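[audit] Reproducing an earlier prediction to check determinism. Same input, same settings, fresh worker. If the tokens differ from the archived copy the diff job will pick it up downstream; this log only records the rerun itself.
[audit] input (66 residues):
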Amino acid sequence: MKVSVDPDKCQGHGRCMMYDTEIFECDDLGYAHIRGDGTVPEADREEVWFASLNCPEQAITVDESA
């Protein structure tokens, strides 16, 4: 599984940070970025899904085929 954040959609609400701070990080303005290459460890998959579902801008994309 891989995850990505569309920087054009992210508005800096920070809801993703409530679910998994090992995958997501925010810059000084609150905009989310992915740490590393976006590969999600098995133990973090559920939290990443919750983060993507709770993003008000739908800026987080989860690719289960990767």
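[audit] rerun output stored. Observation attached for the diff report: The helical segments are 45-54.
[audit] end
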